[in-house]
Here is the input.
Amino acid sequence: MRGILFEPHLAHFERGVPDAEWLPVVGERRWVLLTADKRIRYNLLEKRALKEYSIREFVFASGNMSGSEMAVALDKALPRMRRTCRKFQPPFVAAITRNGDVHMRWPI
Here is the structure.
């Protein structure tokens, strides 16, 4: 995807591993997290990991998007995601909308 390196979750972690266990790895490796799981920023342990490990998270705003719809939204959002990563220091959570807009969710 347009020169973007990505690491699939299952290439590094077993299915069902609690978020609080794999989020530190994301932060330590300075990866940008892309997820459809909107709950991460609300769970206390997971929110603590976002802060402690300075994670940059992008989450799809709509939970009802198909894989192909997420791909289209992501393709449109990539330039905005890059700008967000340059403009804001981690940790942060930003939402990707169905039409590819990016909106900061946390901290606000």
User: Anything to note?
Assistant: Helices lie at 19-28, 44-52, 67-87.
